[in-house]
Amino acid sequence: MQNRQEKISQVVVTAVQMRDIEDRIFAAGMPVVALMEKVAGLIARRIQEIPPTPLKKGGYILSNTPFLRGSPQAGGSRVGILVGPGHNGGDALVVARELHFRGYEVWIYSPFSKLKELTSQHLQYAQSLGIPIYQTIEQLPNSDLLIDGLFGFGLERKLTNPIASAINQLNELSVPIYSIDLPSGLHTDTGEVLGTAIRATHTFCLGLWKLAFFQDQALEYLGKAELIDFDIPLADVKAVLKDAPSIRRITPATALANLPLPRPSVTHKYKEGHLLLICGSRRYAGGAILTGLGARASGVGMLSIAVPESLKSLLVSHLPEALIVGCPETETGAIAQLQLPEKTDLSSFNAIACGPGLTQDATPIVQEVIESDRPLILDADGLNILAQMGAIATLKKRQAVTVLTPHTGEFQRLFPDVPDAKHDRMQAIREAAAQSEAIVLLKGSRTAIANPQGAVWIVPESTPALARGGSGDVLTGLLGGLLAQAATKEIPIENIVATAAWWHSQAGILAAQERTELGVDAFTLTQYLIKVLSN
Ligand SMILES: NC(=O)C1=CN([C@@H]2O[C@H](COP(=O)(O)OP(=O)(O)OC[C@H]3O[C@@H](n4cnc5c(N)ncnc54)[C@H](O)[C@@H]3O)[C@@H](O)[C@H]2O)[C@H](O)CC1
Ligand SMILES: [K+]
């Protein structure tokens, strides 16, 4: 049985779901005022614990501000608290009061004339304590740290002046900003910037992860994100989420539950999955090698790689364990025809992964594998060819599972009529998966996966080091190898896809830690896959 904390860390909610969960807690008797006190108390404690971080703006380290280190009086830590009209502002005011009593030099910026009742009471008390309160941005004294409690999940509309311009000016200060719940100005679900938004160095997400934390467009505003768990009962989470298609963060515990894939002590290579990779062309030979090396790391029992004849010896030298199938090639050096060894046809394989480096000249091969009854991963040119065939109609005819692994550009070519993936990635992949009846893995800073039933899995951490040619080929091979093995082991395919995406990101993170972000070329990445498991 997973413990409560692990379960909570997998949940991702929308603003409406969060409000419904909160309402159940209040209806059950928890006083609003007590919950705010508890939540803000936890935030205040975390603020005092966090070591000073170098402030990065535009990629440059500006200063190493010694705020909140050691005795606040000695450090002279000055903390500015930004207070909005709702309960996000109320949280901020409780933090202000706590830090004031811990000896910090606190001031409050409260630009709104109308506040919710509880927020207004906390402001009144702060004033009675002698904490200075300012209404306009021009009056604000210097500070070592800002706490952003302007808006939380209650932000409904675009920010306008004067608050929008105040936020822009605050962002310009070379001062770290810690946001409460989420950076003010971000849409809680889409992560869209509503006019403007606070650029936080650190964000305390309250209670449950909100969807915005995994939307690419929000990432540069969030800084370092952490969950403040304030003991939301699991029963309330379940009660609210039961009918909604679930969105889950892939945690180390969930991914590692499948890794390495279980292998009985008595087995043989064909029982541990047989993967067929179809990849490469004279023009793109490296893609085939990288896909093969990704598959190697998966531990797949048997690996066959179909490439144009002229690439055969190259592939053999890089992957001596694989069966390299040299195929007749077009004048341009693409695979012209799949020529599998005698007594072998596509039904000999547990899974097929097709696409990296093929070029569009390999269209007949892609059509052939789509028509097969094998579990299939399509990537790169496999996706471009599918887009030309009409993705939705073509995929709906398949009998076996299909996994698509597009980046945003490929996604738009595949699904031109699905709402823009740049606006709301989760919604876009959900619709694409539902319409095509395929599993859709959308690559990005936070890769997300949807199944046709509407469930979504999110890779919660990654590294920009993976934004590099060939890194997707490695994922395709890895995923293919896992899928071929899973076909023999009754593990749900979605779990395998999520596991592969998590593993790939973790290898990037580990490689970047050891070699810097610049040192993670795709070949190096393949060498870190096993290290993720053996570390
Ligand atoms: N999740 C929990 O269980 C807890 C949440 N807490 C905190 O409360 C906020 C949500 O509070 P709420 O009052 O509902 O909303 P906000 O503070 O985000 O602000 C809404 C407030 O702002 C007005 N408004 C909305 N859009 C605009 C706009 N564009 N311009 C101006 N004003 C706007 C709106 O009318 C409301 O008055 C949550 O994030 C947590 O921080 C609890 O404290 C603890 C439990
Ligand atoms: K906020």
Describe the structure.
By secondary structure, the chain is an alpha/beta fold. Helix content is 39%, strand content 16%. It has 20 helices and 21 strands. The strands form four sheets. Strands 12-21-20-19-18-17-16-13-14-15 form a ten-stranded mixed sheet, with helices on both faces. Strands 6-5-4-7-8-9-11 form a seven-stranded parallel sheet, with helices on one face. Strand 7, helix 7 and strand 8 (177-180) form a beta-alpha-beta unit. Helix 11 packs across helix 18 (471-486). The longest helix is centred in the C-terminal third of the chain and has 23 residues, at 493-515. The two termini are 25 Å apart. The protein binds ligand LP7C6HRI and potassium ion. Residues 88, 148-152, 179-182, 184 line the site of potassium ion.
Condensed summary:
The chain has 535 residues and is α/β, with parallel strands linked by helices.
Largest sheet: 10 strands, mixed
The percentage of residues in β strands lies in 15-25%
* Quaternary: single chain
The strand line-up of the biggest sheet is 12-21-20-19-18-17-16-13-14-15
- What is the overall shape? elongated
Total number of beta strands: 21
| Uncertain stretches of 5 or more adjacent residues | 56-71
Provide the helix percentage.
Answer: 25-40%
Structural class: alpha/beta
Domain YjeF N-terminal: 18-238
Binding site for (6S)-NADPHX: 87-91, 152-158, 181, 357, 407, 473
Catalytic activity: (6R)-NADHX = (6S)-NADHX; (6S)-NADPHX + ADP = AMP + phosphate + NADPH + H(+); (6S)-NADHX + ADP = AMP + phosphate + NADH + H(+); (6R)-NADPHX = (6S)-NADPHX
Protein name: Bifunctional NAD(P)H-hydrate repair enzyme
